[in-house]
Design a protein that fits this description.
By secondary structure, this protein is α/β, with parallel strands linked by helices. The longest helix has 21 residues. It is 43% helix and 15% strand. The protein contains 12 helices and 10 strands. Bound molecules: pyridoxal-5'-phosphate. The site of pyridoxal-5'-phosphate has 19 residues, from α3, β7 and α8. Pyridoxal-5'-phosphate binds next to α3, β7 and α8.
């Protein structure tokens, strides 16, 4: 029996687990299933809301009235925090990496629409994120507010509970569909989703390898980061699990030109899945990871698998700011 900490009820869960039969037939490989975490909500869709259910419960328990968090200009995490902050009546301050764009688009449009305060920092300043967090925390405290800092992507020990919870859902999904997938694949950007899934796969005995497809940094970085989140989780949980023995699997072969930069092949995979299955991916996270998965299947890496699960972590709004690269007229 695993005692979950307090959480808010913010996500539409359980999300469906759906087979991609036409694509699987076309590939002639294992059956691919999609865990539709892009359906955790409408404007707050995606993986972040699962983590924020636990992180925001902690913020409220500590009496926070202001959330401070960070990310890229088109951060899905920042958008989810901005909208949830508005829903909960909390002030939100976003520290964004980069310079203000000429036009508000995608996630950034929604950040502004929900009246989150936005501060932009060039990469050289953003590197000193802890200093920026400390400065703004002090600023709000001096004004009599109670700020609460949420780390990049809400990836820490508390956020990990979100995907432990998802693993619990997957256990039910697998028994409902009577499948035993050998691999669970998702995009890895700040590590928390993978940390939660990896822990959850052990806790709920899914007997599946959890594979993170890196979208920015290399495998060594993510293996360290996921382990760090798992240790942070262990410190605050009463569950007995030898986390040091758990293997962490990251594939960093499909990052392409860099974070938020996708190759024409990735845009082509996005178009293919949209047309064939009506499932919409994004070029920063889910499209990159899914493209990597298809390449690995084509290369025969999963020839032994009968079923594979792809966690669709959302990211739809990030597609709009890159619309010109889709090759549609
Ligand atoms: C749409 C989407 N998918 C996947 C990820 C990766 O999740 P994580 O940050 O937990 O590694 C993110 C955020 O980074 C995201 O916004």
């Amino acid at each position: 029996m695993i005692n979950f900490p307090e959480k808010l009820s913010l996500a539409q869960t359980p999300t469906p687990l759906q087979p991609l039969d036409r694509l699987s037939d076309e590939l002639g490989g294992p059956r691919i299933w999609v865990k539709r975490d892009d359906m955790t909500g409408c404007a707050i869709s995606g993986n972040k809301v699962r983590k924020l259910e636990f992180v925001l419960a902690q913020a409220l328990a500590e009496g926070a009235d202001t959330l401070i968090t960070c990310g890229g200009i088109q951060s899905n995490h920042c958008r989810a925090t901005a909208i949830l902050g508005a829903q909960l009546g909390l002030k939100v301050h976003l520290i964004l990496r980069g310079t203000p764009p000429d036009e508000l688009d995608g996630n950034l449009l929604l950040d502004h629409l929900t009246a989150a305060r936005v501060s932009y920092y060039p990469v050289t300043e953003y590197q000193h994120l802890d200093t920026l967090f400390n400065q703004w925390q002090l600023h709000y405290r001096n004004q009599g507010h109670h700020p609460f800092i949420i780390p990049t992507g809400a990836s820490n020990g508390t956020g990990a509970w979100g995907y432990i919870n998802c693993a619990r859902e997957l256990a039910d999904d697998f028994s409902h569909h009577q499948i035993t997938p050998s691999v669970i694949v998702s995009a890895t950007g700040s590590g928390g989703t993978q940390a939660g899934l990896t822990l959850g796969a052990h806790l709920f005995q899914l007997n599946a390898l959890v594979l993170g497809m890196a979208v920015c940094d290399d495998a060594d970085y993510f293996i360290r980061k996921v382990r760090e989140d798992m240790r942070d989780w262990q410190q605050q949980s009463s569950v007995s699990l030898d986390i040091e023995k758990i293997e962490i699997h990251v594939n960093d072969q499909y990052i392409g030109p860099g974070y938020a930069k996708a190759t024409p092949e990735i845009f082509s995979t996005i178009r293919q899945l949209a047309a064939l299955e009506g499932v919409i991916l994004d070029p920063v996270y889910s499209g990159k990871a899914f493209h990597g998965l298809l390449q690995e299947i084509r290369a025969g890496q999963f020839d032994d698998a009968s079923d594979i699960v792809f966690i669709h972590t959302g990211g739809l709004f990030g597609l709009f700011s890159q619309r010109n690269q889709l090759g549609l007229s």
